[in-house]
Amino acid sequence: MQIQLDEGKTKELLTEIVIDLLQNRQDVIREILLDALEEVGLGQAITEGRQNDFVAEEEIFALLDEE
After folding, report:
1. CA 31, 36, 40, 41: dihedral to nearest 10 degrees?
2. Where are the beta strands (DSSP E) in the chain?
3. What is the C-alpha separation between 12 and 20, in angstroms, rounded?
4. Nearby residues of 29 by Cβ (< 8 Å), 6 or more positions away
5. What's the pLDDT score for residue 15?
6. Which pTM does this prediction carry?
7. How many angstroms separate the CA atoms of 23 and 48, rounded?
8. N or C, which end of the chain is more exposed by having fewer CB within 10 Å?
9. pLDDT band at 67 (very low <50, low <70, confident <90, very high)
């Protein structure tokens, strides 16, 4: 069984889903937004951290082996 939706019907269904989420599942929306903000912050931190030279993998494992 295969279901076919035209573009108009797809847009209508997606609109209904988004409206339902906004009205009834604010916790889901909040989690999505928080996750997105965390990802943006992590990306910025990575970009800022790349200003220096990279550390060789061997140096990292040597430090871990000392413990």
Report:
1. 0
2. none
3. 12
4. 21, 22
5. 94
6. 0.46
7. 38
8. N
9. low
- CA 30 to centroid of chain Cα atoms: 13
Structure-token pair, residue 47: 């970009």
Residues 6 or more apart whose CB falls under 8 angstroms from that of 5 comprise: 13
Which amino acid, residue 40?
A: V
Phi, psi of 45 (to 5 degrees): -65, -40
Residues 6+ apart with CB under 8 A from 28: 21
Question: What are the pLDDT digits (tens) for 16-62?
Answer: 998 998 899 888 889 999 999 999 998 888 887 777 677 888 888 88
Separation between Cα atoms, residue 21 and residue 67, nearest integer Å: 49
- For 22, the token pair is 């906004």
Tokens of 23: 């009205």
